[in-house]
Amino acid sequence: MFSAFYDIINQICGDAVTLNGRELDFMETQNEPRQGLIIGRNAVAEALKSGRAIDSLLVAKGEIGGSVGKIIAQCRERGIVVKETDSRKLDKLCSGENHQGVAAWAAVHEYSTLEDILEKAKAKNEAPFVIICDEIEDPHNLGAIIRTADACGAHGIIIPKRRGVALTYAVGKTSAGAVEYVPVARVSNLPSTIDELKKKGFWIYGADMDGKRWDEQDYSGSVALVIGSEGRGISRLVKEKCDFIVSLPMKGSVNSLNASVAAGILMYEIAKHR
After folding, report:
1. Sheet of 184-187, strand order
2. Could you read off the pLDDT of 96-137 as tens digits, one per residue?
3. What is the pTM of this model?
């Protein structure tokens, strides 16, 4: 039975590498601009004017005046991450197109808020169930987590604004369309967001190697499951905020599971208790 269950989980999550999403984009750049990349001052300005969801703005070093300065100001006003980068990296990313020192990553879907996620649970008359991704870097992992979250009835995903992959087109593709149905909230500070969830009656469960067995825990009530990054696991400050630490038994030679596979197993265990 467990063998069949793990086969299903692997089919859902697929194989994934543990590379930072943005660096992967740089390395994979070939002859065409990366999907979801908006290139050039006018194009970026119009995208902002239309209200399009933007993940981050890339600005070549030294480009801060004139129309670029206005674009930067608009992004900061909207809470969009602004990243200064080397112009040669920007040249490579844009595959030789004239970027005029500016490019922007468009999100594959609009971000939601924490309130949106809680409202979704309320509308279904269900205790809220959310997944917190603590610095997940691989877009394939985040996409797989979103896909499994949809399958097991989770109400939403919370990701950090910095130090983690955003809603890129690779995430959307890996989610197999689930990104259209699972709200994803992007927050500035995960520990503060966890404090807010606790005030709303949530129990916080962190996935880590030194915890209680995953199948010996009570997951009833309002639940937030924390999944750590591929290489480092849950960060110290976030781990300190967790009410419970749960772990999966490892009987093989490898001492850890892929983040999205571990998340899938734990999400279905939580769903069983609901």
Report:
1. 184-187, 156-160, 129-134, 223-228, 203-213, 244-247
2. 788 999 999 988 999 999 999 999 999 999 999 999 999 999
3. 0.78
